[in-house]
Amino acid sequence: MSMFLDTAKIKVKAGNGGDGMVAFRREKYVPNGGPWGGDGGRGGNVVFVVDEGLRTLMDFRYNRHFKAQSGEKGMTKGMHGRGAEDLIVRVPQGTTVRDAETGKVITDLIEHGQEFIVAHGGRGGRGNIRFATPKNPAPEISENGEPGQERELQLELKILADVGLVGFPSVGKSTLLSVITSANLKLVPTTLPRLYQILVWSVPSQASPLQWQTSLD
Description:
five-stranded mixed sheet; three-stranded mixed sheet; 1 helix; 4% helix
């Protein structure tokens, strides 16, 4: 039986920037050979990409941690470290991304191929070649790379139901769904309309999955 998942909470961590390097070249008449340490590379971003082939957030049920690679450290001869590749995470159309701590909406991903950076990689640190001055021609200092952005996200999937069940309050819509599907519904006698929606993933025999939706029950 296919399983349906329309919410998920995950953690993302962008890559750290690479550290700058302290190095000196061996050159005659230059103090300590002169600075020659390169900069560190940029850390990888975590990027969400919309994939119209996905239908649920089931992929995030067991895989909840996404970490991009860090940038390479600076090298001698003034060479910069290589920047890390971005980590691509594919999500279905209609995914709303929220900050899990504040509940603020970060972005709505609705178009196929749409991309959004949810965690930015850290900047690479500067090598000692960047700190050379007339007063200090051979600096022995460099910068560490900046840490990548880390955050906890709440994913919500907006979907359109294949079947709608509409009726007056307390006429048995939820009861009907509890009989013909395997949904675990909480039925409470009331004359007041329930304003929330019930989503049920039902799989009739030898048929494609159907999404049932009720509102104002």
